[in-house]
Amino acid sequence: MMIDLGFLTEEEQEAIMKVLQRDAELKRSEEERVRHLPTKINDDIQLKNMSGQWFYDAKSKRHKDKIHGADIIRASLRRKPATMSELSWNRSDKIKNSWVNNVNKEAVVTPELFGIQEQAEEGEAESSLSSNASTVTLDRLQERSTKAAVSPAKQRKNPFNDSILPDDDNLKSRESGSGIAGLSWTPHEDSLSPSKDSQSKTKSLNSGSEEPRQTPTEPSDESQKPTDQPPVPKARKVICKITDPKMQKDAALPKLAKRTNQVNGASTPPRGILKRSSSSSSTDSEVLRVNQKLDAQSKNGVPTSAILEGVAEKNSPTEVAEDNSQNSLEKLKQVRFSYNIGESEQLQSPPLHQGKEIREFDLLEFDDNNSVSNTGRSGAPGNEQSLAVKPSHSSSSALDSNVTGRDVLQENMLVLNSHDAEGSSLSVTETSQPEKSPSVELVTPTAFSSKILLNNMNVPTVDETSPNKSKPHLNPESELLKNAIDQPLPSAKTESPQVPRADLQQGSEEELNPVLMALKRSADRKMPSKSLEDISSATSNTGKVDIPREELVLSAEDVSTVPSKPDNQFSNPEKVKRLSKSVPAFLQEESDDRETDTASESSYSFGKVKKSPSSLTNLSSSSGMASLSSVSGSVMSIYSGDFGNVDVKGNIQFAIDYVEQLKELHVFICQCKDLAIADVKKQRSDPYVKSYLLPEKYKMGKRKTSVRKKTVNPVFNEILRYKIDKDLLKNQMLNLSVWHNDTFGRNSFLGEVEVDLGTWDWNDRVKKQMSWFPLKPRTPTAALELENRGEMKVALQYVPEPAGGKKISPTGEVHIWVKGCNDLPLLRGNRLNSFVKCTILPDTSRKSRQKTRSVAKTTNPVFNHTMVYDGFRPEDLKEACVELTVWDHNKLINHFLGGLRIGLGTGKSYGTEVDWMDSTLNETALWERMMKSPNTWVEDTLPLRMLMIAKLTE
Amino acid sequence: MSDGDYDYLIKFLALGDSGVGKTSLLYQYTDGKFNSKFITTVGIDFREKRVVYRANGPDGISGRGQRIHLQLWDTAGQERFRSLTTAFFRDAMGFLLLFDLTNEQSFLNVRNWLSQLQTHAYCENPDIVLCGNKSDLEDQRTVKEEEAKELAEKYGIPYFETSAANGANVSKAVETLLDLIMKRMERNLGKDKYQQNFIRASALH
Questions:
Q1: Main subcellular localization, coarse class (chain A) (predicted)?
Q2: List of residues 6+ apart from A735 with CB closer than 8 A
Q3: Mean pLDDT rounded to a whole number for chain A
């Protein structure tokens, strides 16, 4: 349900928020009124009318949720980075009621989101970290659930509860995307009252955590934000991973529990915004999934949760006890591992495999802990504080927890990176982000390292006792001491070694200009979600430095499908440029995701469309940098692409093993040799390895190694793990692909290897050893080959002189009546929520896009939606093309199902060669019929097809 | 403004192309004033007004007045706010769909707006009143009353030619919409009562 509001200026946002505030006040009083109604009205029906319940009932019947538009907008706005003015505004709000509080909460959430997003970015780029990010979100969710458990939910007598009070709930639920939201809410409310702070600290912690969770949804919006507000992004990188043993026991359990909750939540359909919002937040749902995966991986920690919450699904109670120990062990292990890596990369030895604790794994856990603690902290401070937080800084959340004072938060915001006494808190928040890259986690700017320690310290404290939280922050040093004592040495070790790396990796990137960074971040944020599905919106980031400005703009605004090469590779910026010029060009955002995302079509790239020379409406493509992030996508989906046009070469060495005890597939990525140079200019490649289990039936997602910089002979020595039953591997292919991690997200494909696990001899000793495999050019993904995409029944009519009859110009209208589709493919199990988007090429401006409502739960949706486009001169009909695309709308993401391009298929438009004028014979026939018989509906049922790219190639 | 001292909170939403006079019409309705200056609405806004609704009973005798608190949502007509404004469609119980009698295009777009409503409103057939605004600018009129009436009839919705400038038909349009909503509720009432009776009857047997 999130909406991309990136186009709004600060002033506009502020104005809108004020309106929403007024609305909230009205709702509050209405709620109050309704609560008292039952005492006055005995007649149920009368009561329904007077309370407005009749309306909410009807609405929920229709929309399947009770979300208020105001809430959607509010939530959408939230994601944006707060400006100072906003912050101040928030403050004023704080004073207000609980409703307001909710608002605040949301704000709080955002910071975390940032973290997540960032993590995501880094994760893709560098390693499987993304999973970490996801875990974080999970944690948050879990926390919520826990909180809920802790404090009894309020009882709302109000019939509106669902709708009205729910605002908060809805928001939360939306944000969280997990079904849990409702539960979690109440706690917040409790915590809301400032006076309660001390008492309810624990609660507040929980609640706080909830807030953060909400954020996940927002990512898309946030992505936009970053562009607007560069400052925010920087702060995030810091991570505090250290956890005290105490922490683990005390906090760990809860945390674990939380995770499970989250997981569960994920499974339950989110009530909220998330569900619907296709555009903005792909992240949430996905994140959740990811988390689940992660959980599976990280089981160690998880088990406890089962006990606590009864979620048990994944964890067995028995395991719980072990969790703590495992965690600690894992950490230790991690340390070793990292140590090995850092020092001697050659530790490739098999033993590592057996050790569960792979660095990723460990990292994940760490992150979880951290994140949890972070969330807890943030939550603790009190909802009100969270308002200040809104701005979206991750740091802010931390601040909240620590300082409790909004002021502090704000300061932090301002300072962003600056570390002060309070800075520690900042770092904490940042921790959540660490997920991105393992190395990154530990370090941010070197300066942070000290802080990190602090953070770690803080985290534990937070978890342990909310009441004392403030103290720990104050005296970071003491905490440090504590940590040193309490914590196993390993944690410290891990950090130190990794830190340097992180600095190196990130440092370079960070140095880049703020805007770019912001873009990047935004992209990153989205990443988590990507693993499951891709989000095109993230793409906006792609055009970071190298990409010509135009492209950036394009990506920002509209996304249209553009044909790409069969390979999906946007070989080089120039090509992209060309594309854009010719018409709608697509930039892809994530280059690497090809597979990742929606399995459906790997090669799609989204781009923004530029205007084309067409005579059709010229809408300003206006978007500026600001809008870049905004792609959120109501409509977009993603096609991942590979930006590079690299000749594949080289070899990869890896080993595969299935660890029966863990029920995990371990892929030990040893090294690569002689990779291609991805960045010809700089003569370098920054490779990493990504894995998938294909087809993505089980949604195991991808795993990644960290990125090795400047080398064509990277040594990874990392284990990519999948928690999956061995039986299921029989019909799976292990796809390992090597990618160049471009600083600006324009990753290049360097080659891949596919291993049929069905024929894999797990007992063959030889096969457990490292083996070299030659890298191969990309093989077509199953998704691409989706043969039957279904069909669409559509009628067209050209009305040369509309009845209204403008005097001005003799232009006609094209009416497009989308009747329905048949046999749409199911990409997500048996779920489907389809809608049709229409664009008239070459005009790809947003304005010209129209879409139908989405119809759920059927492969044969009936839309009966008529779209009218005007301004067509008869001659324009020969140059234009109606692009109808069918999408599967899933929470945050839309998956492309298939499309039509109805036009003459001449390959040209207004004299320019364009890729999209590629109508099939049937499509062309329909268009011709329409042209020949004006004022008459012509209809056909056309097979949906892949609208891609093949032509981009050249 | 809203102290909860009312019987019904009714939410309406005004929509239509940019510049047709949505804000002005609502302003005229709530405050009885008109400002000819064009100030574009930023996304969304709302105004409130308290009215008393008296239903005309079948016997022509009006019952006790119902105190209505109207929340009148004003939306930006500009395309750029579209995603934002449509999000509010679902929260309105009734709609004032405006076009500008002096702007043909705004009239042509009524269909699109209706389709938007169909998609986003709380139900498939929400209560709508069509307003051809700026009826005071008779000399600039480009949309014929017949055309508009025809369209309104086609969709089965009431049509008024309003003027936010002089107030013509403004209250009438809003009150008509209110009447539609109240009638809708009465129908609900009737239906439910009928069902209840039916249930009781069947229980007896």
A1: membrane
A2: A595, A691, A692, A693, A694, A752, A753, A754
A3: 56
Residue A872 pairs in a beta bridge with A812
Contacts of B204 (CB under 8 A, 6+ apart): none
Kindly list the residues from chain B whose CB atom is less than 8 angstroms away from the CB atom of residue A45.
188-189, 192-193
Contact flag B44-A16 (C-beta cutoff 8 Å): yes
Of A333 and B132, the structure prediction assigns the larger pLDDT to: B132
pLDDT tens digit string along A305-328? 333 333 333 344 434 444 444 444
- Interchain pair A25, B3: CB under 8 A: no
Distance CA B1, CA A941 (A): 55
pLDDT band at B99 (very low <50, low <70, confident <90, very high): very high
Which of A15, A50, A55 has the CB atom closest to B42's CB atom?
A15
Preceding peptide of A548 cis, ω within 30°: no
Rg (CA), chain B: 18
Locate tokens 């991808």: which residue?
A: A702
In three state form, how does the secondary structure of A594-637 look? Answer: HCCCCCCCCCCEEECECCCCCCCCCCCCCCCHHHHHHHHCCCCE
d(CA A174, CA A271): 6
Interface of A with B in 771-830 (CB under 8 A): 802-806
pLDDT given at position A804: 55
Please tell me what DSSP assigns to residue A945. Answer: B
Architecture of the A632-774 domain:
Sandwich (2.60)
CATH of B8-197, one of 3.40.50.10090, 3.40.50.300, 3.20.20.80, 3.40.1190.20: 3.40.50.300
pLDDT tens column, A639-694: 334 555 677 889 999 988 888 888 888 888 999 999 988 888 888 889 999 888 87
Contact A16 B84 (CB under 8 A): yes
Element (DSSP H or E) covering residue A749: strand A748-756
Give A-chain residues touching B185 at CB under 8 angstroms. Answer: 49, 54
Give the residue with greater pLDDT, A605 vs A249. A249
Mean pLDDT of A447-474: 39
Looking at the domain A790-944, which fold is it? Immunoglobulin-like (2.60.40)
CATH 2.60.40.150, chain A: domain bounds = 632-774, 790-944
Q: Shortest Cα distance from B202 to chain A (angstroms)?
A: 20
The model carries a pTM of 0.34
Q: What is the pLDDT of residues B166-194, one digit of tens each?
A: 999 999 999 999 999 998 888 876 665 55
pLDDT at B75 over 90: yes
